[in-house]
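task queued by scheduler; priority normal; single chain, no ligands, no partner chains; default sampling; output format set to structure tokens
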Amino acid sequence: MSTDNDILTISPADDLEFTIAALETAKEFGNVNVRKSGAAFQIQFTLLMEPQKQLARVWKTGVAMDASASMKKVFGRRLQGNIPDDIALQYKKKGWVTNENRDTRKVKTFQRDAVNDALERGLVTLSPNTMDFLAPELVGYLSGHMDIDGETALIYWAGGNGTEIEIVGDIKEDEAANLTIDGPDTMMFGENSRMLPALKYFVEKYSDAHWGMFVFITDGRIDDLSELKQYTIRLAQDILADKRNLVKCILVGIGDEIDETAIQELDSLDSKTYIDIWEHMIASDLQDLLNIFSEVIKNNQIVAPNGTICDAQGNILKKYADGLPGRVAFSMPVSSPWFELELPNQRIRQIVTVPKYILRGKG
């Protein structure tokens, strides 16, 4: 247990981070990680308890599909083949061809009339539509197995200038199989890929949801990565401070030209809060997607119907009224020598002992 002298020793320090020794960890807990931030300890612990299957459907879920120009191929909207120059010139004279900037590249775009004509002539074919197979299955899985209301919000993002969103709707499990996923209907494929508007859409739409899990399907191009990371850090800070409820975001890389750089940066983002918002996976087929996704869900399962965390003075630090997750993060005053987790039929007290080697180093 930290003594008053220990507290005086560690109070000025800003770089404390440690894991409580196994012998001093409550038997119900896995790792208990501690990081000092100002006058508070940020604490994360895992619970060694079996998931509550009856509480699996606690999440408010959403799926956001990248509709930037680089995704045309996976939506079955990219032309494959060759349109001879003389026919392309005919199309241009008819106003069926435009030159545009898409995803920072100059591209020649054939309008629908030109595409239909070239398809009828057998000059071109369309790329296979991967998304029409993957997306309905994912939406059906979320709405049928996880969503608290039994319906998953579906949107396209990165349309137009890269910031536009097209709302498909809230999809129930039995409706998912009848979805046609071939790209946006009311907006153009985007000039670049800006993900922040889509994240804000879900966060604001479901601000009252106790648990939010949102899946972003992309080829990895994220042109507003810096703004997205800043927003994520603020979001994590608000979750830790109990100003808003938990949000979990999953990036799914799709296609044969995935750029993993931005995806990995988001996944490894350190918000200095122990709140891990982003995870990522690369999926090549449906089975791969569902298998990996199930692993993500295991790490975020509910293990108790409710739980309350208090400090040594009896102050409530965190309250989970609608389900306690297997991994918990919260903030506690440095002056509190322990915290206590109250479950429906149990109280678990964890003493926060600062390792002696840290005290010696800060003395």
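post-processing summary
- Confidence is low (pLDDT under 50) at residues 1-9.
- The radius of gyration is 25 Å.
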